[in-house]
Design brief:
The structure is a homohexamer of 341-residue chains. With 341 residues, chain A is α/β, with parallel strands linked by helices. Chain A is built from nine helices and 16 strands. In chain A, strand 5, helix 3 and strand 6 form a beta-alpha-beta unit. In chain A, helix 1 crosses helix 9. The longest helix of chain A has 16 residues. Chain A is globular and about 60 Å long. The first copy, chain A, starts with a strand and ends in an 18-residue tail after the last helix. Chains in contact: A-B, A-C, A-D, A-F, B-C, B-D, B-E, C-E, C-F, D-E, D-F, E-F. Chains D and E meet through loops of D and loops of E.
Chain lengths: 341, 341, 341, 341, 341, 341
């Protein structure tokens, strides 16, 4: 077993520090990293970047990267960091994506478009030669097969369900709750939610024919009237979809709305971060249950509606198991959520 | 432009002959194949097979393969056929999958399992070196990215929707119809259906907690009472799921049930083909709208409940466009369905 | 040194169990597998298969596969097993072929044919990424170079020669014995036999012009009259060739006929296994010296003419040496046959 | 011969339009593009981009990309554009880099650094599969071997030399001129300059030991006193180096200073474009001879010291020759400069 | 169809000129090469070589290389020639090996040896990227599968058999002739010979136990007494084997000995070419039937025992068919030998 | 950590023995090789070679190869040696090039030439699969990026500078010394020399227009009159360049000439080794400071002008660090030269 060094790209320090801390009761002291390893990024006058890393010979190297603005710059920085590391001859490299950039561009759903969510894994696997990758709740599960060997997939769904069970059901009667999937994709992606929580479901029908023609047919499928709606999506991006969905739910008679989504990107071309958070706070959504796969600490400092569940322990557990040659399967067992809560 | 030869593996002759016929008004006579090209399959005493093909030097070769029993033997036969063809030095090769075998095994959704739906594309792309592949309604759209370059995807959804519009709405008032998705996967996969037909939707909730606990909550989400339910799934396999869904719909008050699924595999470990068809005919489902992506002629000869829409013209059109260097995008436009009906 | 797990595909349990047992005096207890590791094969209604393996992280994994009917299904099962294993991240994988399927289809000896004996190694090496392969007496030695790195080749020839020396020469005077090669391929493949046993040779001329034209010229080249003919071939498949050869030898005056072939496939399209064995027993061949590279126990249970030399020790020795980083060269030294007899 | 479509990334329109115009007397009308082909870049709220291209089936596609800010975003856009094009199945693709981004990061000259100038070619060749690349005056000639097959290299040195001969020697006596290389790299890179112009040389010694120790030894090697110094470098980036060199030359007694560099990046972290141009105008350099490999029109609109030689004809000639299967060798012959001036 | 250029490495001019000449009635004038294309080989003081080729853009390039001394230098020259050609962007490249160097080192038949006969094809296919290769009578047929796609194999066996039929049977009664295989490899490799000529066979037993032990058993298997022995091997190298075999045949009572081998390497570490030829002339072999796959004109100028059948027409025919997209299968039909005699 | 075996090709024994000796205080005894491992090279009558190596299973294998005549034969021998080793399954392989053959053919600087300096690395990396390579002072630093992962580069420049500082400055006043670069390439390649030694520089202008036209302008740029010129080049090949440069320096008034070049190839097509050394001794060069990257012991036995600095310690240090997973960066620190002097 080799000593461990953990690197991250700029902007991913928050989650990486959290992981580092959680190593304490997991990795044996002789191999445990004392903190984030040093990688210097130099930006030249021509905007080109160059990454230099500290010595990695003989180390098991972990690299953490999550999608943060400026997204494209950080992605190229990731390529540079991995290039620097692999040519510096470590024993092994594990790349961890709390939120993989470009994961939403994962298939050609329009004619003649680029699919960077497919190209990025091939660059990482086939050109840079990374053999181990962990993905946390990717937009679609197939993306793990774009890496070779297949990336390992872990999920925050157990953490989120556990939180709902412990903290929501104490306030709202479980009998009054219903899972509402934001669209068919979320329904497929998070089909375990109603199963874990033993709740009925409703769907929001994003592709319904336009209202003018059949105004009587509702965009919400399922009976949510008088219910506490737990709205499930994989991410909150610009907030527009979430707010639109919430308004529909309110119109449909929902009493409470609790939005639950692992990835809180919270990025909007026309609003500042502060305005976006304020807009969400002023929306009909009563609370947001999210995780820290992307940095949210600062953004949400002033907000009381946001409950952030950290995935740092989950990631630390997954990395530790990889280093220790233990199975990741246990992480998909709801009764094991205590291991990394 | 090179003359065309079209090959198929054993069991795929039905659809391939149909394609050949439809070439008549599409491919110029000088390059049009007169029929299916000769490939002899020799089976030795040790069960090993060897495929020999006729001369392909200077030809644009099309290979058609669909999943037929014995599935595994036919898949190895496909590898052998492609190996024989590529080493015989054709100008170009286009592989067409009306129904790609192993397309359902397209991701690692259990720990430490094989994913042959990922391995088969890599064998075809990376070892055998096939550069052009067409997939018709694969189980999941991401599988096209397992080929390099990305496979082209076409769909029978426009043919099916057009048939419903022309033949069903004349019998059942459109106002009384509702789309029912067999599960979240079908909802995501065929989200265009309600949009094309301007119909409301309902969902069958396959992951609902078990009945004992919350018996009041219905497995069907959405109001189907008194409606003609158009049940959508991507394939009918053993029939068990379809019949179970139909019984649920009946319990929920559906007046009529029309099942619509592109791929009619109709294969059941414990029933003969005839018994399986009879069982489906005796089910609460009033009619089945399917296509001929797998051979169904013989199976359904005696059945009146099954309406089979041929995809031969669609495939012939897609192949012709590939040969003629024309875009396949038009095939995804509902108003163009007349081109290949 | 990593602990060892040994897997096999269905139908290869006989030889794999034998290997496991022979590990007892070879592998240190801490790393020795207690039995064949668990791999579950699920067959769905659509005949697709899925293999799930037990945890292999941190293990040196050995996979044993031999050609058994249904040959093609088992080959796809092997691909699935290897796919499941490699994506479950073992430390190392060694694939062992007592009899490699499709090894006879090892070159393009007719125009425009498939060569699956060339494609299978490329799938295993280039797509699945297996780096270590052991072949036992492949049909042609070149096939080991279809793997990268080159597969390791071992041979049962020393076991067979040793058996003849000990058990045949005690019954038939060595002076009366002659090696007869079944064809030029066998002569090339087993040219060590006469050298090891210090015996003269004769050849059966399989390509002789047809009899009508030059009836006087004999198909047997060399003088076998009054001799005990030890007929050498690499496998007994349908039995037709063996019996034809034996009849020629009888006509040519051979007193006894002892057939010796490592691989006893014993498979015939038109005869049941029992009838095939009976037919061989009733042939002019006095005894058959074979090995258990393919499962023969059940087939030959009732036969007294068949002497089966087990290769389990040889394979266990070769695997052990690979795990222990010892040379396999010693296995090609006749005087070392005692190590694995 | 296939009809041609020419694409460019955003920011490279200036040079691409120029190339398009120069096609007029070069490419036959039937295959000549009428303008830059359409590629739409969509930027989502999460900053991810997606490129969609018009139909390219049956076309010879040319893609032009030069380094413009924001450099990293444009580079990812290039990958997306190439991904979209290659999966849309053109006949052939030619990528043209007037100034290849990251070309200066072309080797590991410090320990454990990234070398994106090596990674970018591998992404383009090995993952995206581009087979034809043209580089104009890369920072180092070896970078062309990072592509497979080897990229084609062309140079603006003949255009620049020709300009000097025609326009400078008419004002300054050739006898008074001297080539001054900005450093050893420039000396190696542009060793043809003094040969083409038949001028003596001087060197600026960038690695001289620090002044305190040996103050008497001059940083300029060679006699420039009273001369018109033609200062050669491959690019003007932040301007600091150029101005420092010019001051040295003035100290050394140079009468005039003419700076000549193909690539005028003109980018400085601490100065606006306008201030940077003003700073250069106020420097001791009398005039700048540059090309338009990066967009300079707007930047230099108000400046009279900058003489910009367009490389559009040179690129159009090189592209035309590639399309017409003609050798590019003639472009390296000084007497042929008239073909593309 | 593209115009053709044909290149060769130094030492292969003889056969290449012959091929060129035979193009005259085969290739249409517009595309026919007028002679061997120019490739200059520069040898520097450090013995490094550099090859420069004339323009190949838009050409179908044929490269001919046969094994000639200095073998290793010529092989590296071939790599250099192919590297120069592929980076100069021809339309297509066909590599033709009348005698492939290192073809005899085609498998690992001793422990831990190099197998350059396996490495050379991988360099040519995988690194240099040559897609079309023709092999004439390789030492073992499997070597063609070391190329990807599989190389095409042609044979001089029909030319040789035809010569024997026409020229030998007129002198020696066919009834008195017998084919003698030099070893088991030759027997396997040339098993068609007795079939084509309808002759009986005998074998020379190269692995027989040493004479002291069983002096009575003959090294020749089969009855050759009083016969005209047509001794078949794939090459004559140092001559020692051939002469040894001939002496055995004489001892065995052979009346005449005619040696027939496609490849006349005629190279001996301890004898000059002249002495080697003289030694062969003085041997008991009455005549040698060989081909010109390696240059023999000069070597055999003075010899009357050597009959050289040119393969130039056969190669020209095979190249022409490849260029014209015609099958090579007809070249394996004995009745078609007239096409290239 | 694995025990070490060190191999070399024929002709590289001198430097390899030196390395072996220097392991003594570096590698722990348990893993230290006792001498050069055995690899037998067999040369057959057809000039083909075959290499056989001793057992390497479980070993960390080091292979040393330097350019020695016959260069091409030794290069093919290297490929054979590496092929034999990699197929014999060592734990790890490190290839060390004191002087990489074909390193000067590192780019396409003329149209349509071969670039074997680019092909050789790809054969070693991509076909043979070597992952670790060390280059000592390659002709151009970019060549290390032709290997994947990037090769490690080390330099003798610190040894040479240290020697000059200790041994030359004691004889010639440092104030009187000047570095003279043999050409622009050497200036770029060895720009550290004047920096390390704190000396001024001059340049020899190899591309100056021919003398007839501007006879007054000097080929030497910089003032060398009365100076001790330390002439720097990367190698001394045929000696012609060195002597020409020296004559220029003498004409320019240099008092002493000390030539310093790491690689002393000393090979001339028209002179014997002895005559070449004599010619250099009789030249105006006062002394030569070289290293033993190529074998020089015998060549220079009689010469007193040559001072040979051994790089054996430097190489032993670099190899040891690689085996011990220590950084090579320290070897690029002038103050650490004591570690390997």
């Amino acid at each position: 077993m080799y000593p461990v060094k953990i690197f991250c790209t700029r902007g991913s320090e928050e989650i990486t520090s959290g992981i580092c801390e959680r190593f304490k009761n997991r990795l044996r002291e002789e191999i445990r990293p004392v903190g984030i390893a040093v990688s210097n990024v130099q930006e030249f006058s021509n905007e080109n970047i160059e990454v230099q890393v500290e010595n990695v010979r003989g180390y098991f190297v972990v690299v953490v990267h999550t999608q943060v603005p400026p997204v494209t710059n950080r992605l190229i920085e990731l390529f540079a960091l991995l290039d620097a590391i692999t040519n510096a001859r470590p024993e092994d490299v594990l790349l961890v994506f709390p939120y993989m950039p470009y994961a939403r561009s994962d298939r050609k759903n329009k004619p003649r478009i680029s699919v960077l969510g497919g190209l990025v894994p091939r660059i990482i696997s086939d050109v840079i030669g990374i053999q181990r990758v962990i993905l946390l709740d990717p937009h679609d599960s197939h993306v793990k097969h774009y890496f070779h060997p297949t990336a390992d997939e872990i999920s925050s769904v157990y953490l989120l369900a556990s939180h709902i069970e412990k903290n929501i059901f104490s306030k709202v009667s479980k009998e009054d709750c219903i899972i509402v999937f934001a669209d068919a994709g979320a329904a497929k992606r998070f089909e375990q939610f109603p199963y874990l929580l033993k709740l009925p479901t409703a769907y929001i029908d994003k592709n319904r024919p336009d209202d003018s023609e059949r105004p009587e047919c509702n965009k919400i499928v399922g009976d949510i009237s008088g219910k506490a709606a737990i709205l499930i999506d994989d991410e909150i991006l610009s907030g527009n979809t979430a707010i639109g969905d919430a308004e529909l739910l309110k119109e449909g008679g929902a009493k409470n709305i609790i939005m639950c989504a692992p990835h809180a990107i919270l990025s909007n071309k026309t609003l500042s971060k502060e305005d976006l958070v304020r807009k969400l706070e002023n929306s009909p959504i009563d609370s947001f249950i999210i995780t820290d796969t992307v940095p949210v600490k600062e953004k949400l400092a002033l907000s009381e509606k946001f409950i952030c569940i950290s995935v740092a322990s989950l990631l630390a557990e997954a990395i530790t198991r990889t280093i220790n040659n233990q199975s990741l399967t246990d992480l998909h067992n709801y009764s094991n959520v205590k291991f990394y809560k």
